[in-house]
What does this fold into?
Amino acid sequence: MFDMKRTPMAQTASIVLLAVLVGGCENFLDVNTDPNAPVNARVEVRLPTVVTGMVHTVYYGDPGQWTVEWMQQTSYNRDSRSYDELQLYEVQDNSANGAWSYHYATMLNELKLMMEEIDPEVDPAYYGLAKFLAAWTWAHTTDLWGPVPFAEALDPAIATPAYDEQSTIYAQVLAMMDEAVAAMKQTSRRRRGPTTCSSAAT
It folds into this structure.
């Protein structure tokens, strides 16, 4: 009866076959990379969303709604709300949680990631614009809350960042805006893609 254990050639063939199979598995899952679901989007694709978020955070959002109501530019014409009774100036400790999250977790975090991913030498305009929007959001943040985390903010390794004085943040914000304007004045070295049909039409 044939016994593989006692046949050197069969043992060698089994080892070679196993090595081929193991080595082939390294690239086996590469076919599951979806080109239509990139991990990072291009800056020109992300920018409109960031600008829309800025409008919601700075001009709309809870602080904006509260202000126009308390200044009596608008009025609430019902007896009660499903949440804070803002028309009666009743605000809870957690009423501003949404606004705080929009400023830090959404806008400032996204702008920080954009500046880290943009090469300022290649895309100075986009880098400058992201920096300007970040400075603007920082100014609005300290306008609302006074001393807030700034120097140690947005660092995942720091769970409880220190609060910076408002005067310190304003000084940094002005410096950031000057740097942003200087960057936006520089010439971009980005290579333009192929001309689209719509733009080539005359």
